[in-house]
Amino acid sequence: MKVLRALRRHGVLGINRRNAEYTLRWNPRGAYPAVDDKLLTKDLCARAGIPTPQLLAVARQHFELRRLREALARLNSFVLKPARGAMGNGILVICDRDGARFRLAGGQRVTLDDLAYHAAGVISGLYALAGQADAAIVEERLLVHPDFAAIASEGVPDVRVIVYRGVPVMAMTRLPTLRAGGRANLHQGAVAAGIDLESGRTTHAILQSRPIRKHPDTGEALLGRAIPGFADVLGFALRAADETGLGYVGADLVVDARHGPVMLEMNARPGLMIQLANRAGLLPRLRAVDREIGPDRSVAERIALAVAIEERARVPA
Amino acid sequence: MNRVVAAVGFVLVALGLAVFGWKVVVYDLPVLPTDPEGLWRVELNVTVRGAGGRGSVRAPVPSTAPGQEVYDERSSADRLLFTLRTEDGGRTAVWRGAFDGVHDIAYGFRVRLAPVETPLPTEVGAPPASAQRYAGSTREFPMDAAEIAATLQVLALPPPSDVAGRLRSIYAMVAHEVATTAGGSDDALLALASHAGSERGKTALLVTLLRAAGVPARPVTGLELRGGAAPREIPWAEAWAGGAWVPLSPTGAFFATRPASLVALRAGSFASVEATGAEAVTYHYEALREHLRPEELAAMMVPANRVLRALSLYRLPVDTQAALRLLLALPLGALVVAIFRNLIGVPTFGTFMPVLIAFALRNVPIYVGLAMVVGVIIVGVFGRLVLERLRLLLVPRLAILLCLVVLGVALFALVGRRFDTRELFSGVLFPIVILTMLIERFSIAIAEEGMRNALVRAGYSLLVTVAVYPILRDPTAEYVMFSFPELTFCVMGMLVWIGGYTGYRLLDLVRFRSFADPSDDAERPV
Fold first, then answer.
1. What's the pLDDT tens digit per position in B133-173?
2. Looking at the structure, do residues A85 and A115 belong to the same domain, yes or no?
């Protein structure tokens, strides 16, 4: 009961309400493929002039695996992943190689055969959302921005922005840990930090739903860190969301050391952990957007609106 | 939940309940599986010996009456002529002919018994002619005898307007102040004089006293049916009061409510099997509890309404019925899954996988079922680990797992043979496919989410399975859903409600519980 009251006070969005009033209501089914399939997301971003990681190779059919092997044989570091993977499943990050052996982000060594086998599983739909046939794609490996180096172990942190009806309502960054095997997967023990939309600085952080102040591996302070290029992050998220036609969408971006913010993928059913990371509920912000959104607001106006809404939605402690 | 959703759900639930209520209230269909308690097959076997002379054997046989429904009567005559006679409102089976040597004759019937509850009268009315026949004095019931009058005097009966009170006084006197002895007198006056009598004697006394008190009364001959023992011939009395015959036990066993173990063979006189012209006769009754046969169940469960009759599933061929019975229980399983997923929020492998597993395992006890699931998963996971090295494509790999599971089940059958688990395997063909799918999902989950999360999810899946399992196994639930398929609308209505519930799931509360922890607020930098 105490928890229920606290959730109501903070306006925490629950799964049922998210599905019924936001994803089902605002996300037309026909718009899903563009975000479920990373190849289509790439096209979409290209149309909107939003940078994405460089695509190095694609295999849509099993017979294309041979060509994929040839492409991989020439590469030293890359990411192999399913075009329609869910929750980061099926992603292999290859950092390095010595001779025939590729080194994975977790330190494991694999051979080209292993990679081809994994790609075959991907094509069969092993990691796809609904088990349908899928494509294995190979992208350049993104590099950790120096500003993040102290608070990310092994992998690359990303920034998740929830965009509702064209307004960014909440953001967080997911920081890989050793425990999560260098992946930014919250369920496996990555750290999530909420981001203040105005300053682009982290305000609160959690590890497995519990508040935390220092990175578990590096011991560096997690709070008050500025996300490099955060204005671009918000702008890209918002423009990409416009392009998808989805009213409630999560955009995942990575701030790359060389390119700055790039769009990694988008999600039509973004998770709710972002509320824990920000220690703030989504509902007051979503409702404020419903009240205040006008037609044809510019990107800058909408970001300003988002900042104003966030400011007002603060729950007095 | 918005109003439209609430209203749609309400309409569906109301629709289902309305049809259900209509069938139950108006057409009196039993809500629960009919209790075969009151269902018996009774047989009277008579052996009669003669030396060539003509004669007859007469036996009282029951008629359909309040509390008993008699049907499916059969007889065997063994060279004699069998007739059923209706006399004095009761039926008599008569075998006649020349008794030559030993004749084995039999009369059998089936009967559905229910307790007879007679409301006690609150006012007196003049008894009709049919009851008046049982108001007078006879040799058997000498109501004018001085001893009877004296006894009534001593009893100090309530005024004639209080019929119930008069019945109670007389009943109490006969039941409790006259001892019941097996060899006691069959005569009313002798039983009264010696304060002891046979059941028949006490019944006669009861009838005599009632008649003397101005209440028409008659004896009834019947059988007491007992599971595991031969039926016993038993007499009791009936008093006409308030427009109905009120049953009264001479031994104090019942008053106004006749238990469902009694079947009345003859009302109005003491009757038993009698033979004339025979050298010797012996008889005995046998009774067996019976279950409803499908077609009888159908006859009972099809309501007497054209629309409802047309929609009754009991009119289908019996094997179709059996399949539909299972199918109609599935919505209940789906409802449970919806509750677990949307109200509680537990993650499972596949949406209806738990229902399918429960459905597949419904023929085996739950612990065997769960052991099978766990065993098959272990086989599959090990198999998958080995296959992983061979780098096979997905579909053949799954097919190999299927083969392994089939072999595993076969092995289990061999082992299980020692433990007499034959029926274990009647229903395991179908689940194998499902379990194979489960293995694949489980092993992917191990790879992707880690062993801990995969086990949690598998645990939740099994939890939901265990919750669904008893529903799919419960014959009552199956009966109710099959007899009242309109309840599926109620399930749909509830699903609409669950689907429209936008509040927190139980596990949302767990997941976001740190919002309730005030110390965390302080940690937040301003």
1. 888 888 889 989 988 989 988 888 888 888 888 889 999 99
2. yes
CATH number of the domain encompassing residue A25: 3.30.470.20
Alpha-carbon span B346 to B13, nearest angstrom: 26
| Residue numbers of the domain that contains A130 | 55-140
Q: Where are the beta strands (DSSP E) in A71-116?
A: 78-82, 92-98, 101-104, 109-110
**Nearest Cβ partner of A126 from B394, B516, B518?**
B394
Same domain, A228 and A255: yes
Closest residue, chain B, to A280 (C-alpha): B515
- Put simply, the chain A residues between 148 and 207 with a CB less than 8 A from any chain B CB are 187-188, 203-204, 206
* Residues in chain B with pLDDT values less than 50: 521-526
Over residues A296-317, the pLDDT tens digits come to: 788 888 888 888 888 887 765 4
Count of the separate structural domains present in chain A: 2
CA dihedral defined by B117, B122, B127, B133, rounded to 10 degrees?
Answer: 50
**pLDDT in the model for residue B56:** 93
Does residue A72 sit in the same domain as residue A157?
no
One domain for residues A292 and A162:
yes
Label residue B391 left, alpha or beta by phi (over 0 means left) and psi (-120 to 50 means alpha). left
Which pair of tokens denotes residue B370? 């769960």
Contacts of A279 in chain B (CB under 8 A): 514-515, 520-521, 524
Spatial distance between the Cα atoms of A23 and A31, rounded to a whole number of angstroms = 11
CATH number of B116-259, picked from 3.30.1330.30, 3.40.50.2300, 3.10.620.30, 3.20.20.30? 3.10.620.30
Residues A208 and A89 in one domain: no
**The total number of residues written for chain A in this structure:** 317
Chain A interface test: which of B443, B524, B526 (most A C-beta within 10 Å): B524
* 8 Å CB contact of A210 and B394: no
Q: At what angle do helices B318-338 and B353-360 cross, to 10 degrees?
A: 140
A116, A140, A164 — which closes off a domain?
Answer: A140
Chain B neighbors of A5, CB-CB under 8 A: 516
- Domain locations in chain B as residue ranges: 39-114+287-291, 116-259, 317-483
pLDDT value at A104 more than 80: yes
Q: Is the pLDDT of residue A240 over 60?
A: yes
The whole-angstrom separation of Cα B381 and Cα B5 is 44
Q: Note whether A153 and A34 are same-domain residues.
A: yes
Compute the half-sphere exposure of residue A8: CA atoms within 13 Å on the CB side of its CA: 7
Nearest to A12 among B345, B393, B512 (CB): B512
Domain final residue, candidates A140, A173, A208:
A140
Rounded Cα distance, B426 and B416, in Å: 13
pLDDT reported for residue B248: 93
Are A169 and A244 members of one domain?
Answer: yes
**CB nearest A121 (choices: B394, B511, B513):** B394
Test B511 with A209 for CB contact under 8 angstroms.
yes
> Cβ of B521 and A317 within 8 Å?
yes
How many inter-chain contacts (A to B, CB under 8 Å) are there? 100
Q: Which residues of B touch A126 (CB under 8 A)?
A: 394, 444
State the pLDDT at residue B523: 45
Query: How high is the pLDDT of residue B524?
Result: 44
B503: chain A residues, CB-CB within 8 Å: 14, 16-17
Contacts of B523 in chain A (CB under 8 A): 204, 211, 213
Closest partner residue to A126 among B444, B503, B523, by Cβ?
B444
Residues A38 and A159 in one domain: yes
Q: Give the DSSP letter string of B458-504.
A: HHHHHHHHHHHHHHHH-HHHHHHHHH-TTHHHHHHHHHHHHHT--S-
- Higher pLDDT, residue A132 or A42: A42
- In this prediction, residues A78-89 reach a mean pLDDT of 82
Chain B residues within 8 A of A127 when measuring between CB atoms: 444, 448
Least Cα distance to A181 among A89, A115, A54 occurs for: A89
**Would you call A62 and B393 a contact, using CB atoms and an 8 Å cutoff?**
yes
